[in-house]
């Protein structure tokens, strides 16, 4: 148990530093695009380009980590991130700046395909009944990076356009050195060697992807569909969040980091302090459904939240009970609540869905199917930001209403999942 906890803590530190770098850069992308005269569609394409690269590489990373170990795959992914941050640092100074912004996202997305490897590492190092909580702790670490990264991005932006990229690259290089020294291999390499030797039983990424499509009623396939649709809906909304806040509430690149920090803090506290207890009390299936309801509610509420155009007039209508300044502040309260439901919903949904997936697949194919999950999630990340960017340019509420409807749809997909993830079934597997 001590060894497992030690591995998890080292992995959490590695994932935390990696996410700090990612979120230093991500919230600034829409503002860089606006500087280049672009709108919602290009912002969606920038977000999607990361997902395209992740989509292509995730099954490959999962398969290679099954065969050669989780540690080397993660180290290569971190190296790709460092290269991407350096490109980002100089993108606006180079000819064809928009091309270099896309290149930054593609290189980082290729390294980001190792998300499935990280999830497989957790599954290797923990017992089935502990995986949702372990994945929750891991996501708490990454969401601590979500809280801190945007603030650092906004602060280092004061040094000039190079600041965030160069600072993120330096963090990433330090992270590589840390992981190289302290991160042990979690994969059973004896089992890996046997799997490599027996080519007749080796699953291919394409076959696994097709199996999910052609056997969508199976529990593993249903869980992957739930993950992909809900993640795509959430990612599509997140890709438009900066433009939404800028358009409706006048947020700038110097203040956007604090909004991301707000959601990050909520996510960290939820995953570190609440998720484990909720899993123990309600189980992964019920908790994931509750999370989907919260996520859909928060997204839908954002479509209708807007500032008051004439606070003085509203204050007069209230008979002077509140000053105009206080009336102008009132819409920020439902905005804060709606935005808070997003990290709450994702905290209760995605760790539980991934933990359930790890239960219904054998360990020898765990990396592969975690990669397939990321492939489908990556496909959603490609499609949703582009579609949402187009819808945003047509009418601001449209992407939020579509996203909320799709999240509700995933609840129906998961009906009856309890029978597949009972502890006794896991023991038998």
Summarize the helices and strands and which ones pair or pack.
Blueprint: H1 2-25, H2 29-35, H3 40-68, H4 70-90, H5 97-112, H6 115-125, H7 131-157, H8 162-182, H9 189-197, H10 205-214, H11 219-249, H12 256-304, H13 311-317, H14 324-329, H15 332-360, H16 366-394, H17 397-413, H18 423-428
Helix pairs in contact: 1-4, 1-7, 1-8, 3-4, 3-5, 3-6, 3-11, 3-16, 4-5, 4-8, 6-16, 7-8, 7-12, 7-15, 11-12, 11-15, 11-16, 11-17, 12-15, 12-17, 16-17
Summarize the structure.
The chain has a single domain, classed as Up-down Bundle (Growth Hormone, Chain: A), CATH 1.20.1250.20.
Q: What can you see in these coordinates?
A:
- This protein is an all-alpha fold and 429 residues long.
- It has a single domain (2-182, 203-428), classed as Growth Hormone, Chain: A.
- The chain is 81% helix and 0% strand.
- Helix 11 packs antiparallel against helix 15.
- The protein is globular.
- The protein starts with a helix and ends with a helix.
- Residues 424-429 have low confidence and may be disordered.
Question: Which tags fit this structure?
Answer:
about 425 residues; disordered C terminus; mainly alpha; Growth Hormone, Chain: A
Distance between the termini: 21 Å
The CATH topology annotation reads as: Growth Hormone, Chain: A
Into which percentage range does the β-strand content fall? Answer: under 5%
The gyration radius over C-alpha positions equals 22 Å
Q: Please give the count of helices.
A: 18
From the 3D coordinates, which CATH architecture would you assign?
Up-down Bundle
Weakly predicted, low-confidence segments: 424-429
- Count of extended strands: 0
Count of domain modules:
1
- The share of residues in helices is over 70%
Structural class: mainly alpha
Return the string of H and E elements: HHHHHHHHHHHHHHHHHH
Please tell me the overall pLDDT: 78
CATH superfamily: MFS general substrate transporter like domains
